[in-house]
Amino acid sequence: EDQVTQSPEALRLQEGESSSLNCSYTVSGLRGLFWYRQDPGKGPEFLFTLYSAGEEKEKERLKATLTKKESFLHITAPKPEDSATYLCAVQLNTGNQFYFGTGTSLTVIP
Amino acid sequence: DAGVTQSPTHLIKTRGQQVTLRCSPKSGHDTVSWYQQALGQGPQFIFQYYEEEERQRGNFPDRFSGHQFPNYSSELNVNALLLGDSALYLCASTHWAKNIQYFGAGTRLSVL
């Protein structure tokens, strides 16, 4: 069965304290892996898409990496405005739907 | 450039009623997907519309139905509402030839 698991469920960081969020997946055939940010009461906001193992994407304090079994979202020197829920989704090569994990709720304390 | 827009933003219904949610895709997009997001969970795929036809469907009962119009906008209909249908309903749009989905802000449905 296709499955996406994110860890940890929640993470509290001091401002400037770098860390990583994990997304592990077990799928029959990966077309792409996507990272989204979701603020409370809002829709997910697209961050990155990764297609093959070894690929990396970077945007400001965020860097996403992909292996054959998992993806990491690295957050360097986070700021309070980085507080949000980060969602990972996979798209299979058999269709267009996304399978989402349950997300990691990140809180950055000033 | 307007992004994905959804209406209404909030809705309160009672059990057994029917509801219609609406979505206008981002300019240039022709494909619309609907997701249900329960509190504290990730979005779950309901179905996807392209060329006015349902192309793919997730594990949701027939009470959930949809429609896509010639201008690519879409509706999600839910019949015989249950308490468990209370959730944030998200619409996402993309171009059929591409695979990045852009989400609207959602409709918060409460079933009492």
Topology:
The complex is a heterodimer of chains A (110) and B (112).
Chain A: E1 3-7, E2 10-14, E3 19-26, E4 30-38, E5 45-50, E6 56-59, E7 62-66, E8 70-75, E9 84-92, E10 98-100, E11 104-109
Parallel strand pairs in A: 2-11
Antiparallel strand pairs in A: 1-3, 3-8, 4-5, 4-9, 6-7, 7-8, 9-10, 9-11
Chain B: E1 5-7, E2 10-13, E3 19-24, E4 31-37, E5 44-50, E6 53-57, E7 64-68, E8 74-78, E9 87-94, E10 102-103, E11 107-111
Parallel strand pairs in B: 2-11
Antiparallel strand pairs in B: 1-3, 3-8, 4-5, 4-9, 5-6, 7-8, 9-10, 9-11
Description:
By secondary structure, chain A is mostly beta strands. Chain A has no helices and eleven strands. In chain A, strands 2, 4, 5, 9, 10 and 11 form a six-stranded mixed β-sheet that branches. In chain A, strands 1-3-8-7-6 form a five-stranded antiparallel β-sheet, with no helix packed on it. In chain A, β9 and β10 form a beta hairpin. Helices cover 0% and strands 51% of the residues of chain B. Chain B contains no helices and eleven strands. In chain B, strands 2, 4, 5, 6, 9, 10 and 11 form a seven-stranded mixed β-sheet that branches. The model of chain B has no long low-confidence stretch (mean pLDDT 95). The interface between A and B is medium-sized, with 24 and 27 residues.
User: How are helices and strands ordered from N to C of chain A?
Assistant: EEEEEEEEEEE
- Tell me the total number of β-strands of chain A: 11
Q: From the helix content, strand content and strand pairing of chain A, which structural class follows? A: mainly beta
Proportion in helices of chain A: under 10%
Report how far the terminal alpha carbons of chain A are from each other.
Answer: 41 Å
* Percentage of residues in helical conformation of chain B: under 10%
Rounded to the nearest angstrom, the radius of gyration of chain B is 13 Å
